UniProtKB/TrEMBL annotation:
Protein name, as recorded: LuxR family transcriptional regulator
Chief location bin: cytoplasm
GO BP terms, alphabetized: phosphorelay signal transduction system; regulation of DNA-templated transcription
GO CC term, one of those recorded: cytoplasm
Location of the Response regulatory domain: 3-119
Pfam families assigned to the protein according to its UniProt record, in alphabetical order: GerE, Response_reg
Length: 210
């Protein structure tokens, strides 16, 4: 079972989404929070596999809650589920350590699929979010150590930016899945990022995507 913590200050949203998710054979909503501070406390107490995090909540917003969770639990997997696509929401949320970014306009089954994919190590971004990242990062390039990547690692990073899974990368490059996983781990380490989402952001930021 994929254990989920759902943080949202709208009770009806929590009830509806939680009911759907708990009806899935592989997902269990083990805790709910109605504000950011409660989300932090429950996350550190239960250590769920996935945290669904709203952005605008009382007491503490989702961005601050995400920061606090990641500071104390760097490997936490947090999916932002919000109505906002504003720049001042998207970038801070991803920079705070969110793994995936979904909109509340998404269908319930899409959120469930995002939970499964994020649990398996992938990062899910709405197309609008990806476009925003690409446009913003290309305007403001930052100097990061991508020159330390090997040619193979750069090639795999490009495929990651295209949204390909490890299995798809292995099939396209005719290499073993285990080899892809080693390369991905090396890429994250060399770029000093925690997950695939941040690696993809890096690729867009440096205009590496052809």
């Amino acid at each position: 079972m994929i254990n989920v913590l759902f943080a949202d200050d709208h009770e009806m949203v929590r009830i509806g989404v939680s009911a759907y998710l708990s009806s899935q054979k592989d997902i269990d909503v083990i805790a709910e929070a109605d504000d950011g501070q409660q989300a932090v406390d429950l996350a550190l107490e239960h250590r769920p596999d996935i945290i669904l995090m709203d952005l605008v909540m009382k007491e503490m917003d989702g961005i601050e809650a995400t920061k606090k969770i990641i500071d104390q639990w760097p490997t936490a997997k947090i999916i932002i589920v919000t109505s906002f696509l504003d720049d001042e929401k998207v970038y801070p949320a991803l920079e705070a350590g969110a793994t995936s970014y979904m909109l509340k306009t998404s269908k319930a089954n899409e959120i469930a699929d995002a939970i499964r994919s994020t649990y398996e190590g992938q990062s899910i971004l709405e197309p609008e979010v990806t476009g925003k990242i690409m446009n913003k990062m290309r305007q403001k390039p930052v100097d990061y150590p991508h020159e330390h990547l090997t040619e193979r690692e750069k090639e795999i990073l490009m495929l990651m930016a295209e949204g390909k899974t490890n299995q798809e990368i292995a099939e396209e490059l005719y290499i073993a899945l285990k080899t892809v996983k080693v390369h991905v781990s090396n890429i994250l380490g060399k770029l000093e990022v925690q997950d695939r989402t941040q690696a993809v952001i890096y690729a867009f930021k440096h205009d590496l995507v052809k």
